[in-house]
Amino acid sequence: MGPSQPTKFSVIENLSSFPEELKGGIVAIGNFDGVHRGHRAVLDAALGLGHGTHHPVYAMSFEPHPRTVFNPSRPVYRLTPPALKVEMLEVCGLDGALILPFTKEFAGIEANAFVQDILIDTLGISHAVTGYDFHFGRARQGTPDYLRAAGANHGFGVTIVQREEDEGAEVISSTRIRDGLASGDIPHANSLLGYRWFFDAEVQHGDKRGRDLGYPTANLSLDENCPLRHGIYAVKVKTGDGWHDGVASYGRRPTFDNGAAQFEVHLFDFSGDLYGQTLRVHLIAYLRGEEKFNSVDELVAQMDKDSAEAKAALASLQPLSEIDLKLLDLAA
To answer: 121, 276, 281, 317 - which has most CB atoms within 10 Å?
Structure first.
């Protein structure tokens, strides 16, 4: 009989503190930025192997993103920053997440040392699951075929999950999702994710102009390298007191100051103080691009139209998947 399964989700950030209850487990290995449908094919394969057994199932991932380590002047925009990625892995039903620090030194580990020192000696894995394009070790010498051979030699199972394609037979990737956000094609980005893309941000003090216009807003800052297209969005927002529908503007406010980009959210049927709260914002639909208006009256008239359109988009909201259902609490 294998090890008993853990009763709570574990997050491990150091190999020296790897818990006994996860040893002998089934490990899904990958970067998993976005935890999109392609990633979940890998995670689901690992969960399927663990179903009905006593083997725990967990993910091994890496931070920061390898591309950022090797090209720090052009950091990769994270669809799911570390904390959100870990949360998503838990929502997917895993028993834990091992988040290893990724450095150039770590990238230089020989493939055989990665297998022997980490997978066997430290983790004692019973099975490894990776995607078809996962490589590890110095000069990417740890190919899927290499991992299969290592498993056969050392007595652990290996499953390589083939590419997951969308309805147009194109491979699902984090890059394509970022491109969807950048173009305002929110249905496409969300379809590839299998859930509505979301972010967390703290409410900051703004110029209170929205209140004067009859549309008080919560002002949020996104990462400076966020590719999201400037414009107007229908959003679903979680505050400290629960879920709210809303309409949001992301951009530089060209009618007023054309300043630094801000994400401004107006919540329907809400009154109260949100300053200092961290909001969770899910993008539901892109409504239109950012525009400059000749007068405040023109702007308010358009905001009225935007609100009506956002309410219509939110009224027909249906879950994209079980994950989307859980994230948005749509069953509640």
So the answer is: 281
pLDDT digits (tens, 9 = 90+) for 91-106: 999 999 999 999 999 9
Distance between CA atoms of residues 226 and 172, nearest Å:
20
C-alpha 268/C-alpha 274 separation (Å) is 14
Distance CA 316, CA 276 (A): 31
Output DSSP code: residue 136: B
- The answer to whether 290 and 252 have CB atoms below 8 angstroms apart is yes
pLDDT in tens, 115-135: 999 999 999 999 999 999 999
Q: What is the largest CA-CA distance in the chain?
A: 73
Ordered structural domains, the chain, with CATH: 10-161 (3.40.50.620), 196-328 (2.40.30.30)
Q: Is 184 left (phi over 0), alpha (psi -120 to 50) or beta?
A: left
* Choice among 13, 20, 21, 264 that is catalytic: 264
CB 177 within 8 A of CB 79: yes
Question: Is there a contact between 160 and 148 (Cβ–Cβ < 8 Å)?
Answer: yes
* Tokens coding 192: 């590839």
Number of neighbours of residue 141 by Cβ within 10 angstroms: 13
For residue 142, give the amino acid letter.
Answer: G
What is the spatial distance between Cα 120 and Cα 106, in angstroms, rounded to a whole number?
17
Q: What are phi and psi of 213, to 5 degrees?
A: -90, 0
- 167 carries an active-site annotation: no
- Calpha distance 69→104 (Å, rounded): 7
